[in-house]
């Protein structure tokens, strides 16, 4: 068993180093026979090889069971042509190449962090604990045609979904709902978009056929964006298409107190996965060792759970994160100055979590 480590750009290398620290400790504790190899991706790879996704990196990933991914992109590479840009040239091709159709984004507000949430106590006290199942390899991001006209006076993106694509992600989400509170909210824009009509029909049919024990409701995406901040406790599993999932998952992640807390897993049918924080490379704070490594460390936990089938080790990491937070350590993004809080840097947060395993 082996995983590839693609730390990338910006805060990527700083937070990945903390996840590797935690991995080393957890591997020792559980005597795991899992190795890893680091490789370049994104702007860092472009600077050395002239491409954000070098052949060497892709071949390494193909030999591995999973990818622990940091973040890519930054102002330095913003003016490159589209296919050479870190996000478009590495992350999106990796998702497509490995057919990572299911993107899981758990949103959770830890009890010790309610003060860091932008929402009032009266709203968050009823709990924030839900998970997005975002379709990741179809829809507006990937459908063709996708181009800018030669005269640059117009452009087109295409939004296409097949029943098969919708069924694949819906199936996964229904199964997950069964292992949770059995509440599934499917989000679409069926009042305007034809893909939304197909989305709703497909989810409804699958529900009737196989999952009538799950409590299914449908919600328009505009309403959902409001419900997430008005009454987040109503959500358990959210089933959502690619673009809407991109947008709503950032909004929801903020409820937990910081984007720096939210991990993600992108899986294919064989449970090969790419595991990354949802926050991005954060060039504005890179190099200062102030970034929150928790999103990366929780991404490691998801990797152990889904690609390596080690639920106990995964749970141990998640509990260690909770314990560290309960002990008061806070990186800058979640520091409120309240009594009992201790402001720490990226490395100290990483070692505190490793010590709490
Ligand atoms: C995310 C990111 C990516 C996306 C970008 C970097 C292409 O925002 O994972 O949410 O939009 O999917
Ligand atoms: Mg996003």
Radius of gyration: 20 Å
Which ligands occur here?
Answer: 3-isopropylmalic acid, magnesium ion
Counting helices, strands and paired strands, the structural category is alpha/beta
Shape: globular
Structure commentary:
The chain is an alpha/beta fold and 357 residues long. The chain has two domains: 1-99 and 264-357, Isopropylmalate Dehydrogenase; 118-256, Isopropylmalate Dehydrogenase (3-Layer(aba) Sandwich), CATH 3.40.718. Helices cover 41% and strands 17% of the residues. The strands form three sheets. It has a ten-stranded mixed beta sheet with strand order 2-1-3-12-11-4-5-10-8-9, with helices on both faces. The protein is globular. Bound molecules: 3-isopropylmalic acid (IPM) and magnesium ion. 3-isopropylmalic acid binds at residues 87, 91-92, 246, 278.
List the helices and strands and how they pair.
Blueprint: E1 2-8, H1 12-29, E2 35-38, H2 43-49, H3 55-63, E3 66-71, H4 86-97, E4 102-108, H5 121-124, E5 129-135, E6 147-148, E7 155-156, H6 163-178, E8 183-188, H7 194-210, E9 215-220, H8 221-230, E10 237-240, H9 242-255, E11 265-267, E12 273-275, H10 294-306, H11 311-326, E13 329-330, E14 342-343, H12 346-355
Parallel strand pairs: 1-2, 1-3, 3-12, 5-10, 8-9, 8-10, 13-14
Antiparallel strand pairs: 4-5, 4-11, 6-7, 11-12
Helix pairs in contact: 1-10, 1-12, 6-7, 8-9, 10-11, 11-12
